[in-house]
UniProtKB/TrEMBL annotation:
Full protein name: YkgJ family cysteine cluster protein
Record InterPro entries: Puta_zinc/iron-chelating_dom
Native species: Aequorivita aurantiaca
Length: 165
């Protein structure tokens, strides 16, 4: 897994232009049944991929925390939301709550999340490859292929299947 993670940013950079073109084409004319194809590719990939062996998303990026996330997680810690924010979060350039630092404060040495059952929505949905109208989040996907080997594989397989039609 370490080798894959070392190579991933370079592989993502090499496929960036091709991915931009592909997503631009999808935005203009989404392939019929794209949502069901994405769901299928997502499920296939995550039968092969074990996030606990990777956890690169938790090690290199931080999720966005919604107000609901903050309420739920602070309740879990028996803290006031304000105290949770002061302890773990900061406001970023987009005026969103994010972690003060990465790797994630809640990531254990074993790659397990200590707040898994109450984790932020952004974590639950990462890498967002099973979303409906997937083509609308192409900018996010372009970032995620450089972080998540599963997202990279899903996009590569999607390009193969869509372009072969």
């Amino acid at each position: 897994m370490e080798n894959i993670l070392k190579q991933l940013p370079q592989k993502a950079k090499e496929s960036e232009a091709e991915n931009k073109k592909f997503f631009a084409k999808l935005k203009k004319k989404p392939t019929k049944h794209l949502d069901s194809l994405m769901q299928e590719l997502h499920e296939e990939e995550f039968q092969r991929t074990d996030c606990l062996k990777c956890a690169n998303c938790c090690k290199t990026t931080g999720p966005l925390f919604t107000d609901k996330d903050i309420e739920r997680i602070s309740k879990h810690f028996r803290m006031k939301p304000k105290q949770f924010i002061e302890t773990y979060l900061r406001i970023d350039e987009d005026n969103d709550y994010v972690l003060q630092s990465v790797p994630c404060s809640f990531l254990g040495a074993d790659n397990y999340c200590s707040i898994y059952d109450v984790r932020p929505k952004a974590c639950r949905e990462f890498p967002h490859t099973d979303r409906k109208k997937f083509q609308q989040i192409s900018n996010l996907t372009m970032k995620n292929v450089a972080i998540c080997p599963a997202a990279f594989n899903i996009v590569e397989e999607m390009k193969r299947r869509v372009n072969s039609k």
